[in-house]
Q: What sequence folds into this?
């Protein structure tokens, strides 16, 4: 059976009332559990029958693995027969340890945890705990990872600044700039795309104050700005809506959504069907030769171009005409690069 948050809170409350030789009546357990549940959801809805069922589950539930030695004394008081018992010291089974080890392995592979000191510390302690109970084994799940990507050390200060709505001073150098620039920045959200991290927000030195993204691997320095520098709020920025009609991280707010139609060769159709280019992808028609025509509604940007160019031998964009010409010119340049 599933155990929701209220259930676990009640179990912990009962455990706290009964451990170390303590005794409690059923009414005292009901009151204590009601108070604990109220603290998390604002309701006192804990019945006598619920607590009686909890006591039974704690005694005999195989799923929980508690087997709590709960006894009744003087026909009135509940307590643990073993005063040293507590549900917080339940040993993990071999299967529990194995699953925990796999979870820790997955967390370690995620690039985001390499830049968040506090979380990384938790993962390291979990790893030590699991290793003490089981010999290391090879992972069965591998995630895409790029340990050489830069800027991960800035994830923690940026995350803290976003949560606190704190203006930061950034020293930043684009790929095309000869010298780094120093400016104040109001950060709104962190986003990862293809193993690179970006922070979205507003530059205080910008006249139009549009939302921009900064690549973390181009940041050289971050520190809190003076308290006199006010955070630039943007109530209209909704991350889910902002990224909904685009691929990647590059967009111009004035760029409209375009209806992109493309033909996919027969051998590549299964890949496009199982892994759509965009959530709006729609199958328009299937041709007699096994090819198919699809459409997506997206903002045209650099990442979309790369998506199509990466499979140019299997995908042909049919419209809009301006986008077709952009791709055609890039393919011409590629051909020149290879002596064509």
A:
């Amino acid at each position: 059976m599933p155990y929701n948050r209220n259930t676990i809170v009640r179990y912990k409350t009962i455990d706290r009332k009964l451990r170390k030789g303590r005794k409690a009546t059923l009414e005292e357990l009901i009151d204590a559990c009601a108070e604990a549940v109220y603290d998390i959801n604002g309701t006192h809805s804990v019945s006598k029958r619920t607590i009686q069922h909890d006591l039974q589950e704690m005694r005999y539930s195989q799923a929980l693995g508690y087997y709590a030695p709960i006894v009744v004394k003087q026909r009135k008081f509940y307590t643990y027969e073993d005063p040293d018992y507590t549900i917080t010291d339940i040993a993990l089974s071999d299967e529990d340890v194995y699953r925990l080890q796999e979870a820790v392995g997955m967390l370690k592979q995620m690039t985001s945890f390499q830049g968040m000191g506090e979380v990384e510390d938790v993962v390291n302690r979990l790893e030590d705990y699991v290793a003490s109970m089981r010999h290391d084994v090879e992972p069965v799940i591998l995630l895409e990872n790029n340990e050489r990507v830069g800027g991960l050390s800035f994830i923690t200060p940026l995350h803290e600044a976003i949560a606190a709505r704190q203006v930061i001073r950034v020293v930043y150098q684009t790929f095309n700039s000869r010298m780094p620039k120093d400016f104040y920045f109001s950060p709104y959200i962190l986003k990862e795309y293809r193993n690179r991290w970006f922070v979205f927000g507003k530059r205080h030195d910008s006249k139009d104050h549009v939302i921009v993204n900064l690549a973390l691997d181009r940041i050289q320095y971050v520190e809190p700005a003076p308290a006199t520098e006010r955070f630039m709020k943007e109530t209209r920025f909704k991350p889910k809506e902002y990224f909904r009609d685009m691929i990647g991280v590059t967009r111009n707010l004035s760029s409209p959504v375009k209806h992109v139609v493309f033909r996919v060769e027969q051998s590549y159709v299964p890949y496009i069907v199982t892994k759509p280019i965009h959530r709006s992808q729609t199958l328009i028609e299937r041709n007699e030769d096994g090819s198919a025509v699809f459409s997506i509604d997206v903002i045209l940007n650099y990442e979309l171009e790369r998506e199509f160019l990466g499979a140019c031998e299997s995908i042909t964009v049919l419209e809009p005409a301006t986008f077709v010409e952009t791709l055609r010119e890039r393919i011409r340049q590629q051909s020149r690069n290879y002596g064509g």
Q: What stands out?
A: The radius of gyration is 29 Å.
